[in-house]
Amino acid sequence: MQEKLTLNDLFALFGRGPDDARWVGSADSAEYLTVVTYLVQRSHQAQA
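Below the sequence we write its predicted structure tokens.
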């Protein structure tokens, strides 16, 4: 069973609250890189 990452979980990684959802498109490059790295690692673990 795959673990689910909710939007609230994602915001919590960056110290943001659920009310920040409207600004999801304004994340900086470091935030995007962190999320992409996490998703790629998770994908590789699921395939193993």
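The chain has a mean pLDDT of 77.
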